[in-house]
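Shipment paperwork, digital attachment
Item: protein structure file
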Amino acid sequence: MFDYNSFENAVIQANKELYEYINTHLSSTDLDESKTIGFGGDHSLNIDLIAENIFIKYLSNFGDIFSEEVGLLSSNSNIKIIIDPLDGSHNFLSNLPYFATSVALKIDDELKAGYICNLNTGILTYRQNCKDTKQLSILTNKSIKFYEISKPKIAIFERAYAYPQICTKLSQNHIKYRSCGAVALSLANAINYKFLLFAGKIREFDIAAGLYINGNLNIYCDDEFLLVSKNKDNFDLVKEFIKDI
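Attachment content:
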């Protein structure tokens, strides 16, 4: 039987080490592009590789690692750990405080847990083994009450800049939205938005943890769009917007 408590502790320790590194040891060379093009197709920053190595160190004993930078490490286990070690790298590089880490756990090809840590606040949002979504501070190891807003005021539309026709439809329907640049972190709080829409190339390590965390919401996903909303009316409205794109 999989030991979720040990895995959760390992995720917390990995995030703690990365948080400490960013806040106490970060150097200018960490922000340089490495010579590596990651598995996801983007040029990796040195900090991307540092973050990935931290997570590999803590999590590789639990199963095979599938990461944005290195791809799949081994393929011998029925357990796959899907990692985005620094979600929002361009935000991080630009000193925009909206970036995170993302870890998803698959057992026998079925999602079983998702963990997303806001590296600015040190708050880990997670759900595992079909239990309720929880939050805790990785700095104090204390649980935080996970608040759900009853009447969300804004939506999130990641990569809105590439879809002006959808932006026009949102404007016509008087929907306020933001495009934050770190989809995993946005997914961590999707329940508190009118909806979350992610458009463009969809990669497993971008969304796997968020899909599990939001497993009780309305979700639509195809090759180009991911739509998540707790409100069925908002969900159906936006699904109409994207069906002919």
